[in-house]
Amino acid sequence: MRYSAKVVGTGAFLLMATACAGQDMSTSQPAAGGGSPAPTGSVSTSPTESVLPTSPSANPPGKPRLTVPEGSTPVPPDKVDASALPNGYPHEVWTANGGTILNIRAQEGGCGHALGEAAEQTGDRVVVNLSETKAQTGQMCTMDIRYPVISVALAAPLDQRTVVLKTTPPK
Question: Which end of the chain has the smaller Cβ count within 10 Å, N or C?
Answer without folding.
Answer: N
